[in-house]
């Protein structure tokens, strides 16, 4: 090991790639962080202390070989760093951009724990694979020979695509059924471009297409084609449909203004960024321009909505959340970014009726945090007679997502679901209650993260290969 290049956390401070200033970045949907220059990446990677027991790695859902690719980056051996990085992660440049690293790898880095500031693992991971794309090191998907088995994958989010990638490398015939007009799931239409630029997702989809994955877009399983027909066509089926049923919204007053579901708002915005015709955006229904916007919710979807509204030219943007900053589920990094961009957070405020008495806005009741519940989290309590009107021209609800009732929608009684409505499947093999049918990602876990969907998709591919009597060459983790 080039020891002089490593263990530099004492003399080299943690430094993220440059962030564009708020007044500039709030005018467009480009990513807010730049790329490391080569020297900077090597220097930051060199802060790693090469732990014998790397907690960063054990807290990465993919168990990425982080210390090794950090060392190779510090030594300028970038191509080797890329080979190691892509061996465990189907989309490293995507995870490097959008994993909540503060809760996963970086949050568990020993240097962070010792007060020196974590190694910037996510930014280095992004840099390695972006460089690989630039230098032409990302190879087309090839296999040692075509196999006769075929697999139908329902849903083209990260879970479905990670599985498709691994199966094609094994020579399996793969068809992805996607109800939308573009592949990529929430990476394409949910997550805004300022976190994940769309070219980054689209080049991966092209790579899969060129590698022989067949995409059937605009194909709603359960509508355009039955689940039974898909089962009849393929030797195995993977359900990777994500969770899309928005949690119950506050009741609008009769004849009052509409409450916009978060995903409708974000999808319209993403489509607009693709250059599509979006009538609901043009009409102003799903467009924040010139409006006073209130977003209800405290998770990452709410953060994406407020920051999208800023970029669309809203007059003001407020986020209502019934607990306080310390107790919100969204990433603190995203809250800080939103604040920098001019979003106002109204903590400890519970939204009530929308458009009450013909007024434009949301009635809000003030809250305080009471005694902790069994989980140790303080329970929010209403403060009596504290109701007031938060004026708004556009009210967006971002209260989370639940699974659609697949057995009913698809008419498949034998497909067992949990009490939360997620598809019941083994957490290692991803086998469901139906033989030859697997499930992965959000539809198995409930609303989660891209990195977990990738892990699930890779594990499902391994289990499917085992069903075909073959082992995968690439390990799932
Ligand atoms: P999805 O990505 O949801 O893909 C499922 C696909 O299945 C979709 O394309 C859908 O159209 C298709 N489909 C559904 N039903 C059918 C059917 N009947 N027939 C055919 N196709 C069907 N995670 C992070 O790690 N970092 C983030 O920053 C982040 N930000 C997020 C922001 C928002 C606004 C949202 C909503 C989520 C965010 N997530 C983030 C979570 C992450 O996007 C999901 O956990 C992940 O995409 C789940 O992957 P998946 O493959 O299970 O499903
Ligand atoms: Fe960290 Fe996510 Fe990369 Fe794992 S995949 S190393 S958790 S950024
Ligand atoms: Fe390096 Fe931090 Fe991982 Fe240790 S925990 S190997 S210092 S990145």
Structure explained in plain terms:
- The chain is an alpha/beta fold.
- The protein folds into 3 domains: 133 residues, Alpha-helical ferredoxin (Fumarate Reductase Iron-sulfur Protein, Chain B, domain 2), CATH 1.10.1060; 159 residues, FAD/NAD(P)-binding domain (3-Layer(bba) Sandwich), CATH 3.50.50.60; 155 residues, 3-Layer(bba) Sandwich (FAD/NAD(P)-binding domain), CATH 3.50.50.60.
- 34% of the residues lie in helices and 15% in strands.
- The protein contains 19 helices and 16 strands.
- Strands 3-2-1-4-16 form a 5-stranded parallel β-sheet, with helices on both faces. The chain has a 5-stranded parallel β-sheet with strand order 6-14-7-8-9. Strands 10, 11, 12 and 13 form a 4-stranded antiparallel β-sheet that branches.
- Helix 4 packs across helix 8.
- The chain is globular, with a radius of gyration of 23 Å.
- The mean pLDDT is 93.
- The structure holds flavin-adenine dinucleotide and iron/sulfur cluster (SF4) (2 copies).
- One iron/sulfur cluster binds next to helix 6 and helix 8.
- The site of one iron/sulfur cluster has 14 residues, from helix 3, helix 4 and helix 7.
